[in-house]
Specification:
mainly alpha, 0% strand
Length: 147
């Protein structure tokens, strides 16, 4: 007999407490790395938008609002390339977030631009934050209840 589950929900945080806990510890470490938290949150929201994680989009949009971003600026994030609402450093971070999330095969030119504004450690922390957010999005989308 085959059981069809309309909504497959799993308490993945409890089931793999140590593993998921370590992912969240890494997230906390990245947030404390010295990079402007607003830049990290901006990248996290864009990655969450690309991956389609409704919960994470809501969470990071509120976080940006709490950081002082105007709602109009947050609303413009999906079209960031076509607005002057973001400064050059924010656009650079958004370019990096999109390139990593969309798996751009040629990152060398963009990495060179990053090195003009960020230290090597900041680039590593930013890259870790972007890739970690993508993993957290996918865990939430595939295993948690729909929001």
């Amino acid at each position: 007999m085959q059981i069809c589950r309309k909504f497959f929900i799993m308490n993945y945080k409890e089931i793999a407490k140590e593993t998921i806990g370590n992912l969240y510890k890494a997230h906390t470490s990245i947030r404390k790395s010295g990079i402007d938290e607003k830049l990290i949150a901006l990248a996290e929201l864009r990655v969450s938008q690309i991956n389609g994680c409704a919960y994470c989009c809501s969470y990071h949009a509120k976080e940006l609002s709490d950081f002082g971003f105007e709602q109009d600026v947050i609303n413009r994030l999906p079209g960031w390339k076509h607005t002057h609402a973001f400064n050059e450093k924010q656009k650079l971070v958004l370019s990096w977030a999109e390139a990593l999330t969309y798996h751009d095969p040629d990152l060398s030119e963009l990495r060179e631009k990053l090195s003009q504004d960020f230290t090597d450690r900041e680039i590593v922390e930013l890259t870790a934050g972007i890739t970690l957010m993508s993993a957290l999005n996918k865990l939430r989308i595939s295993l948690a209840k729909k929001d």
